[in-house]
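hey so i finally got around to running both of the ones u sent me last week. sorry it took forever, my laptop kept dying halfway thru and i had to restart like 3 times lol. anyway pasting them below in the order u listed, first the sequence line then the structure token line for each. didnt double check formatting much so if smth looks off just lmk and ill redo it

first one:
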Amino acid sequence: MKNSLPRLAFAFVIALMLLEPLGAIEATEHRVETKIVLAVDGIAVLRNLPVLLADHLGYFKDEGLNVTLMETAANAKVDEMLADGRVAGMVAYYHHTIVAQSEGRACEAVITMAVTPGYELLIANQLKESVTKLSELKGKRIITGGPHSAKSTTANWLMLQQGFQITDFIPIAPTTRAKIAATLKAGEADFVIAPEPDAGFYESQGIASLFADLYSVEGTRQSLGDIFPSTVLYMSTPYAQAHPELARHLVKAFARALQFIHSQTNEEIAALVPEIVAREGKETRVISQGVKMFATDGVMPDSAARMEAKAIAALFPEYGQVDIGKTYTNEFIAAVLKNSRSSPSSIIP
């Protein structure tokens, strides 16, 4: 099968300054396409599967969009480019809109593509006989992520859900997969929060075992008490309001990607994942875990957004001042779903 690789544009600010703002068009044989840039935090990572599929399956082109995918982390500089149209949207985890709002940048998620953290909580095998419940996490050493990472938010949320404080566990900064494996094996950490394929690696090495499934909606609700909005497309709020048709076309393309995920087998999806994804990321086992994140029609559940904000504010109190209602909008996805002749076959149960 011939793969259509995304056109990558790496985040060199000087080059971006030369980009034309939204609205630049190029004539093709069939139609006039709007040229835009979408920033993606991890183009080749499983959590962004809808991006790869929307590009690979031609859903952007179907909406009249000529999309360039730009690899970059979500940050204030990208938010500035969202505001003036050099970048049309940012695909990243939802909590970045909370951070942006707290720092005075009006950004909102326009479609919610994933509703779980996309991780597994693994326990070091030395402990799996003596620690069997989440209520026993207090005092444990957990390999998480940076302060603003979704891994840390997940760890904090796990503790809060058990009635603990976020200071009731010992966070350990992540390193390389090999070093994390050595740390777990040596008994220097009790748990690790990891995505696939890393989680599968630790299990295959006999180092750690699954303790809590944070890929599935059911497992996430059991562990956190609610779903966890993760992968979203967010835009500058003023820009989305000024260009509602663009927002609608982008949301429709991603909604179609979600519908495709819901309607295909894991093997069929794995066969379509572009070669940009690392070899392990194309394994059916990895895909079968990853697709559980996307059990949604694209609508942001308000209760889950507020729960996530609470978990983030536990570490960064300033985020508690953010008006959560301004960090997302369901306006565009509601319009797309209303006008769609078919509904997603698998949504949040």
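and the second one:
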Amino acid sequence: MGALEIVMVSALNYPSLGGTETHIIETSKRLAARGHRVTNLACDGFGDLKKTEILDEVEIKRFKAYPKNSDLYFSPKLIKELKYLSADVIHIQGIHTLIAPTALWKLRKSRTPVVLSFHSGGHSSQIRKTLRSTQFKAISRVLSPVKKAIAVSDFERSYFQDVFGKNGPPIDVVPNGTESLDAFKIGKVASISRPTIVSAGRLVKYKGHHRLIEAIPYLTSEYPNIKVHIVGEGPYKPALINLINRLGVSDHVTVESFRRDERGELFSLIGRANLMVLLSDYEAHPVSILEACALGVPSLVLDSTGLHDLVKDQFAYPVAPGADAHEIAARIKEMLKSKVQLNGMYQPTWENTVDKLLEIYEEVTSQ
């Protein structure tokens, strides 16, 4: 296969730290390193980023989105740009904003093959969660340009096979990967008498950081020096800080964030931890758990949605979705005392992800 011109379309991109954005930039850089020409189209939700940027031979173009500071991402200029770009394949990344349906509508008569990655996620708004199935069914009506869809987990593939039915595109599973993190591995983690726990992810309610905070009062009598790092940014931050203060655990909990150029510091923090915790209502295939596993740090997750796939593949240990704070604390104590460690059935890398993407690109461009 010769060099391809690949256009990736998404709501957000670098320097955002979300799982979808990490997937896009990590695969784009590696595709470019293999000699392909890669252009990323994305929104600038706050209007404070460069309109055009070159990062490791990847051209990133950003466009205004409306409403400003919203997570809907309606961007007429981005969609119009699709008309002028030369591409062998257009890869739409993410299905939960207005980018996917508007781009698919624009491309409905295009001869350029389209690949659609779901990168589905949860939402803290009950109204938005209720409307998701309706939104996805509406998208099913504009799937004609899509030659192949991509899920990041078996759970996500099954979910969208049910949503789209027999008229949907074929769906392949291409898991997320991790970069080489050997340099950040710590030979000696925090002492069991002074355990460190990390919960990383956007600060929104469905991510479940509050569940870990609520469990801390049940841990401090046995572990008076326990330290919990809540890592992320988002609109739920004030509520989490209020909860920390109300429960009187401010000496044990730190809420912090890292920029993308500070990922080394983040990996060092995780590498020193005794445990990574992700008690999220919905995840497709979280990169943070794969990174923790690569760093040799065990993870505790809610046994539901795409997190169940990580439990099944031995990347994480489960806690029941309906577990209360006392039960979550008991599971954490169990894991701290047993010093458990899972290595996963395999350790996926971003190079593995790119290998599979190129197989799909070759398939759709040869049809």
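quick thing i noticed on the 2nd:
The longest strand covers residues 37-44.
anyway thats it, ttyl
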